[in-house]
Write a structure and sequence with these properties.
about 10% helix; mainly beta; 10 strands; eight-stranded antiparallel barrel; globular
Length: about 190
């Protein structure tokens, strides 16, 4: 009887020890972008971009639902392609932003939906307002980076938000309230 209990205890301990914990990955700022677009008066689609931002992923490749992501970026890093548009975005019509204002996202849950897809729920803080959003995410690839020779992972995701939810509704609905967001990021395993 003692041998059976000891064997069961060792098996349980081995199973517990075998479970992998999430590993910290940091975003590669040179290969991570957030693209946004909106309809301008029905005449065109206007695009903007964030790049060079920081963030981390606690990545559990064995159990992706156990992963998490957090990203913070200065609003001043937004690229609109036209300085007058950027300057207008920073006025009281929109952000009324200080130079150190940030946009952030922190995941609150991950629902795995397929072999390499998931819905990532999280809190988006924009213009001083925090609202939940859901990202439709896809793992593009995870493995050893051929040049960096270390673990690397790449993800794409999409979502849509309403400007009015974040007190940015100037000119809506003529300039669309809906803003489409496309995300593509690479992340490298953090050094110990």
């Amino acid at each position: 009887m003692k041998k059976t209990l000891l064997a069961a205890a060792l098996a349980a301990a081995a199973a517990t020890g075998a479970a992998a914990a999430p590993e910290k990955y940091v975003l590669d700022p040179g290969h991570s972008q957030i693209l946004f677009d909106y309809n301008h008066l029905g005449y065109s689609t206007t695009y903007g971009l964030f790049s060079g931002f920081e963030g981390e992923i606690m990545f559990d490749q064995e159990d992706p639902a156990n992963s998490s992501v957090s990203v913070t970026m200065p609003l001043s890093m937004m690229f609109t392609g036209w300085q007058a548009r950027f300057d207008h975005f920073m006025t009281k019509d929109f952000f009324d932003a200080t130079e150190d204002e940030t946009v952030s996202f922190a995941s609150t849950g991950i629902e795995v939906t397929g072999d390499n897809t998931a819905k990532i729920t999280g809190d988006l803080t924009l213009n001083g307002v925090t609202k939940p959003v859901v990202l439709d995410a896809k793992l593009n690839q995870a493995g050893e980076h051929p040049m960096a020779k270390k673990p690397w992972a790449g993800f794409d995701a999409t979502t849509q938000i309403l400007r009015t939810d974040y007190n940015l509704g100037q000119f809506a609905p003529f300039v669309s309230d809906e803003v489409n967001i496309k995300i593509s990021i690479e992340a490298m395993k953090a050094d110990s």
